[in-house]
Amino acid sequence: SSEGSVEKEKTIALIKPDGVSGNYTDGIKRVILESGFSILRETIVQLDEDKAANFYAEHSSRTFFSSLIKYMTSGPVLVMVLEKENAIADWRGLIGPTDARKAKITHPHSVRAMCGLDSEKNCVHGSDSALSAQREMSFFFKGMSSGGGFDKDAGTHT
Ligand code: RTP
Ligand code: MG
C-alpha cells in the first residue's frame, strides 16, 4: 500500500430473487451507500440452473442444494461490486446471519432482518473471503480482478 492511502477492498453483493421481486433493491442500495461503500459495477442477471449450481458449487452435496438452485433461478438477481476498506467482512456483517429468522432476533438492523424470510430466502449474498470475492467478480464481470483492473471487456458480462 502506498503512503497515506487506505487500502480498499472489493466484494460481491448480490440481491437474490426475493429481494429484487420484493422491491428491496433501492432500500438495500441506500444501506450500502450510507455504510460507506462505493458501488463500482452492477448488472441484473437471470441465472440458469448451470450458472446457479456453479456459483454455489461448494454446497452441491448439501440437502438444501436443489431447493437453493430453484430459489436462485426463480427470477433475476442484481449483482454489485462494492468497494471500501474491509469491504468483505463489513458487507458480511451488514447482511447478518444466514437464517433471516434468527437475524430478526439477533441482528434486527441487518439487511437479512429487513428483507429476508428464513434460512433459505435471505434476500442477499456476500462473498465470504478474498478468494471468493475474486472468483465471484470474474464469474459475473468478465476481466475484473480484485486488484481493480479493468480490461477491454469490462462492461460486458455473459
Ligand atoms: P451466501 O453464500 O448466499 O452469502 O449465504 P451464507 O454464506 O450466509 O450461507 P451459506 O452457508 O453459504 O449458504 C448459501 C445459501 O444457501 C441457502 N441455504 N439454505 N435450507 C437451509 O438450511 C439453507 N442453508 C443455506 C441460503 O440461501 C444461503 O444463503
Ligand atoms: Mg456462503
UniProtKB/TrEMBL annotation:
Which reaction(s) are listed as its catalytic activity? a 2'-deoxyribonucleoside 5'-diphosphate + ATP = a 2'-deoxyribonucleoside 5'-triphosphate + ADP; a ribonucleoside 5'-diphosphate + ATP = a ribonucleoside 5'-triphosphate + ADP
The residues covered by the Nucleoside diphosphate kinase-like domain are 8-148
What GO biological process, any one, is recorded here?
GTP biosynthetic process
Q: Name the positions where ATP binds.
A: 16, 64, 92, 98, 112, 122
The organism sits in which domain of life?
Eukaryota
Entry similarity comment: Belongs to the NDK family.
Protein's name in the database? Nucleoside diphosphate kinase-like domain-containing protein
Q: Which organism is it from?
A: Dipteronia sinensis
What phylogenetic lineage does the species belong to? Eukaryota, Viridiplantae, Streptophyta, Embryophyta, Tracheophyta
